[in-house]
Write a structure and sequence with these properties.
Blueprint (H helix, E strand, L loop, with lengths): L7 E10 L5 E4 L5 E4 L7 H7 L7 E6 L13 E5 L14 E5 L5 E10 L2 E5 L9 E12 L2 H6 L12
Antiparallel strand pairs: 1-2, 1-3, 1-9, 4-9, 5-8, 6-7, 7-8
The structure holds zinc ion (ZN).
Length: 162
């Protein structure tokens, strides 16, 4: 039997809940593939899946430090509405791609709009949240040499190259 370890291509289904028990996200009918040991998924989940086999169920509570990190006050910025295209209706929760001063692309999310000002954050929407995962391991196989070289899985649900 194949156990989850570095270099295995793993597929799992999951339900993710918050502290209040409400479902945040789930894999639905399509199992989620990833390459184990390559930080494709959050650290807390990767650690919890280590050594598991097909059919194993894993229930794990993951603190923000092992998930999407803590909110970063330095990532919050207030900008004037004129910084956005005039035809865009700015709403809380919207996400944009922006650029840092040195030209790196970053994702920002609107967390507040007051008058002519829009408050943005670079935090992941799940930053600061404790996550409760209920996981079923669906498939474990050896990754191909190509997948290992790329650091991600190929095929259904994985990366597609054009
Ligand atoms: Zn690839």
């Amino acid at each position: 039997m194949s156990l989850i370890a570095h270099g295995k291509a793993v597929s799992f289904s999951y339900v993710l809940k918050g502290d209040d028990g409400a479902v945040i996200d789930s894999s639905g009918n399509q199992a989620m593939p990833y390459l184990h040991g390559f930080s494709n998924i959050i650290p807390g989940l990767e650690a919890a899946l280590e050594g598991k086999a097909v059919g194993d169920r894993v229930e794990v509570t993951i603190p923000p430090e092992q998930a999407y990190g803590l909110p970063n006050p330095d990532g919050v910025q207030k900008v004037h509405r004129s910084q956005f295209p005039p035809d865009v209706d700015i709403e809380v929760g919207m996400q944009f791609q922006a650029q840092t001063a040195d030209g790196h692309p970053i994702h920002v999310r609107v967390i507040e709009t007051i008058g002519a000002y829009v408050t943005l954050t670079t935090d992941h929407p799940l930053a600061g949240k404790t996550l409760h995962f209920n996981v079923l391991v669906v498939d474990v196989r050896d990754a191909s040499a190509e997948e290992l070289a790329h650091g991600h899985v190929h095929g259904p649900g994985g990366h597609h190259h054009h």
